[in-house]
Amino acid sequence: MSEHIVRQTRQKDAIRDALNGCDEFISAQELHRKLEDRGEHIGLATVYRQLNALAEAGRADTVRLDGQQLFRLCGDDGHHHHLVCTGCGKTVEIESPSESWLKGISDKYGFAIERHTLEVFGLCADCRKLDK
């Protein structure tokens, strides 16, 4: 039986480093642009492939906002959720909802929960001020 070996490459390191420098969720296109601005010439398809590999490995969180998939490395290895500002992208990690709330919702609709994700989208205080 062959063991799966993950190759470490300069491109993977550059993508992970650039993503690590982002506090908010970012699209693959935006990350690609940041890499280009830094002088890293990595194809957009490679950026997508690496971001999706990070997400599949559980090393990056993803959310969908305005029809785009966004990515973010999170410092906490535990299960967590996010508040995401739809105006500026500011992101705050929040604690999980209580188990009793989840059980109550699933029971109410006749579901058995296998896994859950919860992302809350809205406007942060700064964006609300700008909106007025």
In short:
Helices cover 39% and strands 20% of the residues.
Tell me the radius of gyration: 18 Å
Order of helices and strands: HEHHEEEEHEH
Record the strand order, biggest sheet.
Answer: 1-3-2
Tally of helical segments? 5
Largest sheet: 3 strands, antiparallel
Q: Would you tell me the structural class of the helices and strands?
A: alpha+beta
- Report the uncertain regions: none
Give the CA-CA distance, first to last residue.
62 Å
Strand content: 15-25%
Helix content: 25-40%
Mean pLDDT: 86
Overall body shape:
globular
Number of strands: 6
Question: Overview of this structure, please?
Answer:
With 132 residues, the chain is of the alpha+beta class. The protein contains 5 helices and 6 strands; from the N terminus they run αβααββββαβα. It has a 3-stranded antiparallel β-sheet with strand order 1-3-2. A 3-stranded mixed β-sheet has the order 5-4-6, with no helix packed on it. The mean pLDDT is 86.
Based on the model shown, name its key terms.
132 residues; 5 helices; single chain; 39% helix; 3-stranded mixed sheet; alpha+beta; 3-stranded antiparallel sheet; globular
